[in-house]
Amino acid sequence: MADYDYDVLVIGAGPGGYVAAIRAAQLGLKTACAEGRGTLGGTCLNVGCIPSKAMLHASEYFEAAAGGMMAKMGVMVEPRLDLDAMHSQRKDAVKGLTGGIEMLFRKNKVDWLKGYAKFTAADTVEVDGKSYRAKNIVVATGSSVTPLPGVDVDNDKGVIVDSTGALELAKVPGHMVVIGGGVIGLELGSVWRRLGAKVTCVEFLDQILPGMDGDVRKEANKIFKKQGIEFKLKTKVTKAEVKGKKAVLTLEPAAGGEAETLEADVVLVSIGRRPNTDGLALDKAGLTTNQRGQIETDHDFRTSVPGIWAIGDVVPGPMLAHKAEDEGIACAENIAGLTGIVNHDVIPSVVYTWPEIAGVGLTQEQAVEKAGGDKTAVKVGKFPMLGNSRAKTNHEPDGFVKVIADAKTDRVLGVWCIASVAGTMIAQAAQAMEFGATSEDIAYTCHAHPTHSEAIKEAAMAVTGKPIHI
Ligand code: FAD
Ligand code: NAI
């Protein structure tokens, strides 16, 4: 240790980096974390998961009041939107949580090196003009918005924005065009639709939410359409011009064809995110990236250079905060000589729309493909939320649960839910899969009544037999 400044130096304080740093310190390692942003917590706490959920939650209340749901339940109110107050509770949430990470760093004696880090050698980085040598360096620099050529984001002007700009709009746009029918487009499109915007979603593919189960994608499309979002599928945006306070978009069929124009007050570019490695001087450390710009690692999160590790959005896999966190813990444990493992086959994902959309494990399409295209190798049980007493009582009829199991062994391969609280429901499916459960195991587990989770039990019952309530 003598000539090292730190046992572990983490670059980036997002959910991957800050969690890795805290766990390393908890395990008795002298730890620092470099972060160039003014506050800790990375994309997730500053401009991602947390502020988006603050706006989603608040706009859900507004729509419940303005859209007549409260009146349906006998609560009569005359809602008025105070957007400044809504933004201010969003900022409070971010401030509270990012400040909390600073406190956790102090408590665990993690040094925050303020500034952007770059490698000067495989075991040395420079931060704000100072050099630090560390026995282990963890790259956790996260990701940022993928740009769309011809559509230049300018969050300050507020006409063509990315997710960060879309969280902060000073007024509700008359017409918002969302480019990309993925997670960000649907979540932030939902926020502004609930607050009064007309929302059009332009998606390159023939269906929204790529990567999710086919039935879920179709049903989600129907639900969002019913809520008023207009979809232009199989369509690409080739150009955007800002004219005064409006943008004029040129659209074309994805396969080519006649162009059309579309006017918008706000355009949200949400076509994906790409790993952050620019400015790290990876070459000085002998590190390279793959074709997608990611840093490859082995199962233990070691890169090709001894002593350098990588986790989170900057490595392959889903770009999710909980995946980054789990990798952070496992990576720190591996550095400490323990056995840190992440089961990448069981990473839940949730879209926080209304209703929520959640899944874990394989889609039906993936399960069939894995069985060499044999459709009979996979059994599926489905249960509609309409048959669930709690969802029905709460006026939440949309959605279903789908359990996918191996036809021979009955082992659960994937679970997909569309339900108001799907994000909470999916945890039990992940746990069941982590324990190697069969659909029968879930079907014979006693679930509290009346809960939305009973729909998972009934979908499991439907895999080999019949559910009761439909
Ligand atoms: P990041 O959180 O991106 O953090 C990396 C940090 O590294 C940044 O703070 C950056 O400033 C810093 N950094 C970069 N380069 C350097 C350098 N050279 N030196 C020092 N510091 C550096 N995921 C979910 O699971 N659930 C959600 O609900 C969810 N909502 C989202 C909503 C939005 C609008 C967005 C954009 C993302 C959302 N995500 C969500 C994704 C989630 O934010 C990311 O998967 C997660 O933050 C990745 O964590 P990370 O630690 O890998 O990187
Ligand atoms: P995404 O990958 O979820 O969706 C991008 C969409 O844009 C896809 O449907 C894609 O087909 C489409 N697209 C790509 N190029 C296009 C083009 N030129 N024209 C029209 N459509 C195009 O990416 P998104 O929504 O930007 O989110 C980035 C990542 O952030 C997500 O992958 C997710 O990992 C993370 N995230 C997670 C959240 C959550 O967990 N709830 C919330 C928000 C973001």
Automatic annotation (TrEMBL):
The keyword Oxidoreductase applies. Residues 347-460 form the Pyridine nucleotide-disulphide oxidoreductase dimerisation domain. Belongs to the class-I pyridine nucleotide-disulfide oxidoreductase family. GO terms for molecular function: dihydrolipoyl dehydrogenase (NADH) activity. InterPro entries: Class-I_Pyr_Nuc-Dis_Oxidored, FAD/NAD-bd_sf, FAD/NAD-binding_dom, FAD/NAD-linked_Rdtase_dimer_sf, Lipoamide_DH, Pyr_nuc-diS_OxRdtase, Pyr_nucl-diS_OxRdtase_dimer, Pyr_OxRdtase_I_AS. Keywords: Disulfide bond, FAD, Flavoprotein, NAD, Oxidoreductase, Redox-active center. The active site is a redox-active disulfide bond. Binds 1 FAD per subunit. Residues 6-328 form the FAD/NAD(P)-binding domain. It catalyses: N(6)-[(R)-dihydrolipoyl]-L-lysyl-[protein] + NAD(+) = N(6)-[(R)-lipoyl]-L-lysyl-[protein] + NADH + H(+). Its cofactor is FAD. Its EC number is 1.8.1.4. This is Dihydrolipoyl dehydrogenase. The gene is lpdA.
